[in-house]
Protein backbone atom coordinates (compact mmCIF):
# COMPACT_ATOMS: atom_id res chain seq x y z
CA UNK A 1 0.00 0.00 0.00
CA UNK A 2 1.34 3.44 -0.95
CA UNK A 3 2.26 5.74 1.92
CA UNK A 4 0.03 8.81 2.08
CA UNK A 5 -0.05 12.04 4.04
CA UNK A 6 -1.36 11.35 7.55
CA UNK A 7 -4.78 12.88 8.12
CA UNK A 8 -6.20 10.85 11.03
CA UNK A 9 -5.03 9.52 14.39
CA UNK A 10 -5.79 5.95 13.28
CA UNK A 11 -3.54 6.36 10.25
CA UNK A 12 -0.84 7.91 12.45
CA UNK A 13 -0.88 4.99 14.91
CA UNK A 14 -0.92 2.44 12.08
CA UNK A 15 2.19 4.01 10.54
CA UNK A 16 3.80 4.26 13.97
CA UNK A 17 3.32 0.53 14.54
CA UNK A 18 4.59 -0.34 11.06
CA UNK A 19 7.76 1.73 11.53
CA UNK A 20 8.33 0.13 14.91
CA UNK A 21 8.08 -3.34 13.34
CA UNK A 22 10.49 -2.33 10.57
CA UNK A 23 13.01 -0.92 13.05
CA UNK A 24 13.05 -4.22 14.93
CA UNK A 25 13.92 -5.97 11.64
CA UNK A 26 16.29 -3.20 10.45
CA UNK A 27 19.24 -5.53 9.84
CA UNK A 28 17.34 -7.74 7.37
CA UNK A 29 15.16 -5.22 5.53
CA UNK A 30 14.95 -5.23 1.76
CA UNK A 31 15.70 -2.04 -0.17
CA UNK A 32 11.96 -1.43 -0.65
CA UNK A 33 11.30 -1.89 3.06
CA UNK A 34 14.14 0.49 3.95
CA UNK A 35 12.72 3.12 1.60
CA UNK A 36 9.23 2.65 3.02
CA UNK A 37 10.52 3.03 6.58
CA UNK A 38 12.21 6.29 5.60
CA UNK A 39 9.07 7.64 3.91
CA UNK A 40 6.84 6.67 6.83
CA UNK A 41 9.24 8.30 9.30
CA UNK A 42 9.08 11.57 7.36
CA UNK A 43 5.27 11.44 7.27
CA UNK A 44 5.10 10.72 11.00
CA UNK A 45 7.48 13.59 11.82
CA UNK A 46 5.48 15.95 9.63
CA UNK A 47 2.25 14.96 11.37
CA UNK A 48 3.77 15.25 14.85
CA UNK A 49 5.38 18.59 14.23
CA UNK A 50 2.38 20.06 12.44
CA UNK A 51 4.69 22.45 10.67
CA UNK A 52 4.90 23.55 7.07
CA UNK A 53 8.04 22.75 5.08
CA UNK A 54 10.88 25.22 5.41
CA UNK A 55 10.24 28.02 2.99
CA UNK A 56 12.74 28.77 0.23
CA UNK A 57 15.35 31.39 1.11
CA UNK A 58 14.97 33.41 -2.11
CA UNK A 59 12.28 36.09 -1.46
CA UNK A 60 10.37 35.55 -4.71
CA UNK A 61 10.63 31.76 -4.45
CA UNK A 62 9.27 32.03 -0.91
CA UNK A 63 6.24 34.00 -2.13
CA UNK A 64 5.59 31.56 -4.99
CA UNK A 65 5.98 28.65 -2.59
CA UNK A 66 3.38 30.12 -0.23
CA UNK A 67 1.02 30.87 -3.14
CA UNK A 68 1.18 27.27 -4.30
CA UNK A 69 0.79 25.99 -0.76
CA UNK A 70 -2.37 28.05 -0.15
CA UNK A 71 -3.77 27.86 -3.66
CA UNK A 72 -3.46 31.61 -4.20
CA UNK A 73 -3.59 33.41 -7.53
CA UNK A 74 -1.76 36.59 -8.46
CA UNK A 75 -4.95 38.56 -7.97
CA UNK A 76 -4.97 37.43 -4.33
CA UNK A 77 -1.69 39.30 -3.77
CA UNK A 78 -3.01 42.71 -4.82
CA UNK A 79 -3.80 43.69 -1.19
CA UNK A 80 -0.12 43.15 -0.34
CA UNK A 81 1.36 44.94 -3.37
CA UNK A 82 -1.24 47.60 -4.17
CA UNK A 83 -1.94 46.92 -7.86
CA UNK A 84 -1.97 43.97 -10.24
CA UNK A 85 0.87 45.49 -12.26
CA UNK A 86 3.07 45.64 -9.15
CA UNK A 87 2.29 42.00 -8.42
CA UNK A 88 3.51 41.05 -11.90
CA UNK A 89 6.59 43.24 -11.68
CA UNK A 90 7.66 41.85 -8.31
CA UNK A 91 7.05 38.20 -9.19
CA UNK A 92 8.88 38.69 -12.50
CA UNK A 93 11.78 40.20 -10.52
CA UNK A 94 11.48 43.58 -12.24
CA UNK A 95 10.59 45.51 -9.07
CA UNK A 96 12.15 45.07 -5.60
CA UNK A 97 10.06 44.49 -2.51
CA UNK A 98 9.43 47.62 -0.46
CA UNK A 99 9.37 47.81 3.32
CA UNK A 100 5.56 48.11 3.22
CA UNK A 101 5.27 45.02 1.00
CA UNK A 102 7.59 43.02 3.25
CA UNK A 103 5.62 43.97 6.35
CA UNK A 104 2.31 43.08 4.69
CA UNK A 105 3.54 39.74 3.31
CA UNK A 106 5.12 38.78 6.61
CA UNK A 107 1.91 39.45 8.53
CA UNK A 108 -0.51 38.21 5.88
CA UNK A 109 1.25 35.14 4.49
CA UNK A 110 3.48 34.22 7.42
CA UNK A 111 6.76 34.49 5.48
CA UNK A 112 9.66 35.53 7.69
CA UNK A 113 10.86 39.09 7.21
CA UNK A 114 14.47 37.85 7.03
CA UNK A 115 13.59 35.70 4.03
CA UNK A 116 11.76 38.55 2.29
CA UNK A 117 14.62 40.96 2.91
CA UNK A 118 17.01 38.35 1.54
CA UNK A 119 19.12 37.94 4.68
CA UNK A 120 19.08 34.17 4.23
CA UNK A 121 20.36 34.24 0.68
CA UNK A 122 23.84 32.99 -0.04
CA UNK A 123 25.98 35.85 -1.25
CA UNK A 124 27.32 35.04 -4.71
CA UNK A 125 30.99 35.32 -5.47
CA UNK A 126 31.58 38.57 -7.28
CA UNK A 127 32.62 38.34 -10.90
CA UNK A 128 35.41 40.81 -10.24
CA UNK A 129 37.83 38.69 -8.26
CA UNK A 130 40.50 40.20 -6.06
CA UNK A 131 43.16 37.53 -6.47
CA UNK A 132 45.30 39.03 -3.74
CA UNK A 133 42.65 38.02 -1.17
CA UNK A 134 43.42 34.35 -1.52
CA UNK A 135 45.38 33.23 1.58
CA UNK A 136 48.59 32.84 -0.40
CA UNK A 137 50.96 32.91 2.58
CA UNK A 138 49.06 30.17 4.40
CA UNK A 139 48.79 28.12 1.22
CA UNK A 140 52.55 28.33 0.78
CA UNK A 141 53.28 27.58 4.45
CA UNK A 142 51.11 24.45 4.24
CA UNK A 143 52.97 23.24 1.17
CA UNK A 144 50.10 23.68 -1.24
CA UNK A 145 52.12 25.97 -3.50
CA UNK A 146 55.75 26.76 -4.14
CA UNK A 147 57.12 29.71 -2.21
CA UNK A 148 56.63 32.91 -4.18
CA UNK A 149 59.56 35.15 -5.01
CA UNK A 150 59.36 38.92 -4.77
CA UNK A 151 58.76 39.02 -8.51
CA UNK A 152 56.03 36.37 -8.56
CA UNK A 153 54.09 37.96 -5.69
CA UNK A 154 52.91 40.57 -8.15
CA UNK A 155 51.58 37.78 -10.35
CA UNK A 156 49.10 36.52 -7.75
CA UNK A 157 46.27 36.24 -10.27
CA UNK A 158 48.27 34.01 -12.60
CA UNK A 159 49.59 31.82 -9.78
CA UNK A 160 46.20 31.31 -8.13
CA UNK A 161 44.44 30.77 -11.45
CA UNK A 162 46.86 27.96 -12.24
CA UNK A 163 46.31 26.45 -8.80
CA UNK A 164 42.51 26.58 -9.04
CA UNK A 165 42.44 25.42 -12.66
CA UNK A 166 44.62 22.47 -11.74
CA UNK A 167 41.78 21.13 -9.60
CA UNK A 168 39.10 21.71 -12.21
CA UNK A 169 37.29 23.99 -9.75
CA UNK A 170 36.16 27.13 -11.51
CA UNK A 171 35.44 30.26 -9.50
CA UNK A 172 31.68 30.39 -9.03
CA UNK A 173 31.24 26.62 -9.32
CA UNK A 174 30.99 25.88 -5.61
CA UNK A 175 27.79 26.70 -3.77
CA UNK A 176 28.24 27.32 -0.04
CA UNK A 177 24.81 26.38 1.28
CA UNK A 178 25.47 26.88 4.96
CA UNK A 179 26.26 30.20 6.57
CA UNK A 180 29.60 29.88 8.34
CA UNK A 181 30.62 31.43 11.63
CA UNK A 182 33.35 34.05 12.10
CA UNK A 183 34.58 35.74 8.94
CA UNK A 184 32.84 33.35 6.57
CA UNK A 185 30.80 36.03 4.83
CA UNK A 186 33.81 38.21 4.05
CA UNK A 187 35.46 38.04 0.61
CA UNK A 188 38.71 36.80 2.15
CA UNK A 189 36.96 33.80 3.68
CA UNK A 190 35.12 32.94 0.48
CA UNK A 191 38.45 32.84 -1.32
CA UNK A 192 39.90 30.68 1.45
CA UNK A 193 37.06 28.20 0.97
CA UNK A 194 37.77 27.97 -2.76
CA UNK A 195 41.47 27.44 -2.05
CA UNK A 196 40.60 24.74 0.50
CA UNK A 197 38.27 22.98 -1.93
CA UNK A 198 40.93 23.02 -4.64
CA UNK A 199 43.35 21.37 -2.22
CA UNK A 200 40.74 18.77 -1.29
CA UNK A 201 40.18 17.87 -4.94
CA UNK A 202 43.90 17.59 -5.59
CA UNK A 203 44.36 15.21 -2.64
CA UNK A 204 41.32 13.17 -3.67
CA UNK A 205 42.74 12.62 -7.14
CA UNK A 206 45.83 11.04 -5.63
CA UNK A 207 43.67 8.61 -3.65
CA UNK A 208 40.94 7.72 -6.11
CA UNK A 209 43.14 5.51 -8.26
CA UNK A 210 42.99 2.97 -5.45
CA UNK A 211 39.22 2.88 -4.92
CA UNK A 212 36.37 1.00 -6.54
CA UNK A 213 33.94 2.53 -9.02
CA UNK A 214 31.07 4.50 -7.49
CA UNK A 215 27.59 3.00 -7.89
CA UNK A 216 24.94 5.50 -6.69
CA UNK A 217 22.29 2.76 -6.52
CA UNK A 218 24.14 1.26 -3.54
CA UNK A 219 23.65 4.37 -1.40
CA UNK A 220 20.44 4.19 0.63
CA UNK A 221 19.24 4.26 4.24
CA UNK A 222 20.55 0.73 4.77
CA UNK A 223 23.98 1.85 3.58
CA UNK A 224 23.94 4.72 6.08
CA UNK A 225 22.83 2.41 8.87
CA UNK A 226 25.60 -0.09 8.12
CA UNK A 227 28.13 2.75 8.07
CA UNK A 228 26.79 4.07 11.39
CA UNK A 229 27.18 0.69 13.07
CA UNK A 230 30.88 0.63 12.23
CA UNK A 231 31.19 3.18 15.05
CA UNK A 232 30.69 0.30 17.51
CA UNK A 233 34.23 -0.87 16.76
CA UNK A 234 37.28 0.69 18.38
CA UNK A 235 38.67 1.03 14.84
CA UNK A 236 35.40 2.48 13.60
CA UNK A 237 36.72 5.63 11.87
CA UNK A 238 39.32 3.61 9.96
CA UNK A 239 36.72 1.02 8.97
CA UNK A 240 34.35 3.78 7.84
CA UNK A 241 36.92 5.33 5.50
CA UNK A 242 37.72 1.89 4.08
CA UNK A 243 34.00 1.11 3.69
CA UNK A 244 33.34 4.32 1.76
CA UNK A 245 36.34 3.94 -0.50
CA UNK A 246 35.30 0.36 -1.26
CA UNK A 247 32.07 1.92 -2.54
CA UNK A 248 33.82 4.52 -4.67
CA UNK A 249 33.68 7.51 -2.31
CA UNK A 250 37.02 9.22 -1.63
CA UNK A 251 37.61 10.48 1.91
CA UNK A 252 40.32 13.07 2.51
CA UNK A 253 41.45 15.03 5.55
CA UNK A 254 42.43 18.68 5.32
CA UNK A 255 42.43 21.19 8.14
CA UNK A 256 40.41 24.35 7.61
CA UNK A 257 42.13 27.60 6.72
CA UNK A 258 42.26 30.54 9.10
CA UNK A 259 39.04 32.51 9.31
CA UNK A 260 36.85 29.61 8.20
CA UNK A 261 34.82 27.31 10.42
CA UNK A 262 34.45 24.08 8.48
CA UNK A 263 33.64 20.57 9.71
CA UNK A 264 33.33 18.81 6.38
CA UNK A 265 32.39 19.01 2.73
CA UNK A 266 30.80 16.90 0.02
CA UNK A 267 31.38 17.39 -3.70
CA UNK A 268 32.06 15.52 -6.91
CA UNK A 269 35.10 15.69 -9.14
CA UNK A 270 34.62 16.36 -12.84
CA UNK A 271 34.58 12.61 -13.54
CA UNK A 272 31.71 12.07 -11.10
CA UNK A 273 33.77 10.64 -8.24
CA UNK A 274 32.22 11.67 -4.89
CA UNK A 275 34.60 13.32 -2.44
CA UNK A 276 34.08 13.76 1.29
CA UNK A 277 36.49 16.06 3.11
CA UNK A 278 36.85 16.25 6.89
CA UNK A 279 38.80 18.86 8.84
CA UNK A 280 38.66 17.11 12.24
CA UNK A 281 38.65 20.56 13.83
CA UNK A 282 36.99 18.89 16.82
CA UNK A 283 38.93 15.78 17.75
CA UNK A 284 35.86 13.94 19.05
CA UNK A 285 34.12 10.76 17.97
CA UNK A 286 30.63 12.26 18.09
CA UNK A 287 31.63 15.09 15.74
CA UNK A 288 33.52 12.76 13.39
CA UNK A 289 30.63 10.36 12.98
CA UNK A 290 27.84 12.88 12.55
CA UNK A 291 29.86 14.98 10.10
CA UNK A 292 30.78 11.90 8.08
CA UNK A 293 27.20 10.66 7.73
CA UNK A 294 25.91 14.18 7.07
CA UNK A 295 28.27 14.44 4.09
CA UNK A 296 27.38 10.93 2.88
CA UNK A 297 23.73 12.01 2.94
CA UNK A 298 24.66 14.92 0.66
CA UNK A 299 26.36 12.48 -1.72
CA UNK A 300 23.24 10.32 -1.73
CA UNK A 301 20.57 12.98 -2.06
CA UNK A 302 22.01 16.27 -3.28
CA UNK A 303 25.05 15.91 -5.52
CA UNK A 304 23.65 15.65 -9.02
CA UNK A 305 26.78 16.91 -10.75
CA UNK A 306 30.12 18.62 -10.20
CA UNK A 307 28.78 22.17 -10.07
CA UNK A 308 28.09 22.32 -6.34
CA UNK A 309 30.03 21.71 -3.17
CA UNK A 310 28.44 21.53 0.25
CA UNK A 311 30.79 23.07 2.81
CA UNK A 312 29.45 22.59 6.32
CA UNK A 313 29.84 24.21 9.69
CA UNK A 314 27.59 21.96 11.75
CA UNK A 315 27.52 24.38 14.68
CA UNK A 316 25.37 26.75 12.63
CA UNK A 317 21.65 26.27 12.06
CA UNK A 318 20.51 26.33 8.45
CA UNK A 319 17.16 26.93 6.77
CA UNK A 320 18.30 25.12 3.64
CA UNK A 321 16.04 22.10 3.18
CA UNK A 322 18.89 19.99 1.85
CA UNK A 323 20.94 20.62 4.97
CA UNK A 324 17.93 19.75 7.11
CA UNK A 325 17.47 16.53 5.15
CA UNK A 326 21.14 15.59 5.55
CA UNK A 327 20.85 16.19 9.30
CA UNK A 328 17.71 14.07 9.50
CA UNK A 329 19.15 11.17 7.48
CA UNK A 330 22.34 11.13 9.55
CA UNK A 331 20.38 11.26 12.79
CA UNK A 332 18.02 8.47 11.73
CA UNK A 333 20.92 6.24 10.68
CA UNK A 334 22.37 6.43 14.18
CA UNK A 335 19.26 6.67 16.37
CA UNK A 336 15.81 6.45 14.76
CA UNK A 337 13.69 9.25 16.16
CA UNK A 338 10.91 6.95 17.31
CA UNK A 339 13.38 4.95 19.38
CA UNK A 340 15.16 8.05 20.68
CA UNK A 341 12.10 9.80 22.11
CA UNK A 342 11.06 6.66 23.98
CA UNK A 343 14.51 5.67 25.23
CA UNK A 344 15.75 5.93 28.81
CA UNK A 345 18.79 7.79 27.47
CA UNK A 346 16.48 10.62 26.40
CA UNK A 347 13.92 10.45 29.21
CA UNK A 348 16.28 9.76 32.14
CA UNK A 349 19.79 10.38 30.83
CA UNK A 350 22.67 8.72 32.64
CA UNK A 351 25.89 7.01 31.64
CA UNK A 352 24.19 3.67 32.11
CA UNK A 353 21.18 4.52 29.92
CA UNK A 354 23.45 6.01 27.25
CA UNK A 355 25.60 2.89 27.16
CA UNK A 356 22.52 0.65 27.08
CA UNK A 357 21.03 2.44 24.08
CA UNK A 358 24.39 2.44 22.30
CA UNK A 359 24.68 -1.30 22.88
CA UNK A 360 21.14 -1.88 21.62
CA UNK A 361 21.74 0.09 18.41
CA UNK A 362 25.36 -1.07 17.98
CA UNK A 363 26.75 2.46 17.82
CA UNK A 364 29.41 4.20 19.88
CA UNK A 365 28.15 5.78 23.16
CA UNK A 366 29.77 9.07 22.10
CA UNK A 367 27.10 9.41 19.42
CA UNK A 368 24.28 8.99 21.95
CA UNK A 369 25.92 11.46 24.34
CA UNK A 370 26.42 13.97 21.52
CA UNK A 371 22.79 13.62 20.40
CA UNK A 372 21.59 14.22 23.95
CA UNK A 373 23.72 17.35 24.36
CA UNK A 374 22.55 18.70 21.02
CA UNK A 375 18.85 18.03 21.58
CA UNK A 376 18.78 19.42 25.12
CA UNK A 377 21.13 22.32 24.42
CA UNK A 378 23.09 21.37 27.54
CA UNK A 379 26.69 21.06 26.41
CA UNK A 380 28.08 20.75 29.92
CA UNK A 381 26.94 17.15 30.46
CA UNK A 382 28.59 13.83 29.55
CA UNK A 383 31.68 15.54 28.12
CA UNK A 384 33.76 12.55 29.17
CA UNK A 385 31.72 10.27 26.87
CA UNK A 386 32.37 12.10 23.58
CA UNK A 387 35.55 10.26 22.65
CA UNK A 388 37.73 13.36 22.85
CA UNK A 389 41.23 12.89 21.45
CA UNK A 390 40.38 9.54 19.84
CA UNK A 391 40.14 10.45 16.15
CA UNK A 392 43.21 12.34 14.98
CA UNK A 393 45.61 9.70 16.24
CA UNK A 394 43.99 7.23 13.81
CA UNK A 395 44.83 9.43 10.82
CA UNK A 396 48.30 10.69 11.67
CA UNK A 397 49.76 10.28 8.18
CA UNK A 398 46.73 11.85 6.49
CA UNK A 399 46.87 14.84 8.82
CA UNK A 400 50.61 15.26 8.31
CA UNK A 401 49.86 15.62 4.62
CA UNK A 402 47.23 18.21 5.52
CA UNK A 403 49.63 20.50 7.34
Describe this structure in words.
InterPro entries: Antitox_HigA, IrrE_HExxH, Lambda_DNA-bd_dom_sf. Pfam families: Peptidase_M78. GO terms for molecular function: core promoter sequence-specific DNA binding. By secondary structure, the protein is mainly alpha-helical. It folds into three domains: 9-49; 59-117, lambda repressor-like DNA-binding domains (434 Repressor (Amino-terminal Domain), Orthogonal Bundle), CATH 1.10.260.40; 131-402, no CATH class. Helix content is 50%, strand content 4%. It is built from 19 helices and four strands. It has helices spanning 9-24, 31-49, 59-70, 78-81, 84-91, 99-109, 113-117, 136-141, 156-167, 187-207, 221-229, 236-246, 285-301, 321-334, 337-340, 344-347, 351-361, 365-376, 396-402, and strands spanning 250-253, 264-268, 274-278, 309-312. Strands 1-3-2-4 form a four-stranded mixed β-sheet, with helices on both faces. A hairpin with a 5-residue loop joins strand 2 and strand 3. Helix 1 crosses helix 2 (31-49) and helix 17 crosses helix 18 (365-376). The protein starts with 8 loop residues before the first helix and ends with a helix.
Amino acid sequence: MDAKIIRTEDQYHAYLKEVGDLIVRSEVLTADEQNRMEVLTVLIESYENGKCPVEPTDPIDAILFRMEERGLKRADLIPYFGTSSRVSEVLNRKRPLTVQMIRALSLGLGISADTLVGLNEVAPVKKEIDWSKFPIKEMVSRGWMDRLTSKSIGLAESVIKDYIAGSGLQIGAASFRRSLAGDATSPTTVYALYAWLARVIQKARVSKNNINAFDPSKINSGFLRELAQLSWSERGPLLAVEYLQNHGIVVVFEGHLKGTQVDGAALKDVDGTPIIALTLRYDRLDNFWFTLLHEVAHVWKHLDGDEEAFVDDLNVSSEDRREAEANRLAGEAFIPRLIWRRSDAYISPSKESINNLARELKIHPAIVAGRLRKDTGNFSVFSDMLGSGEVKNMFVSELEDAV
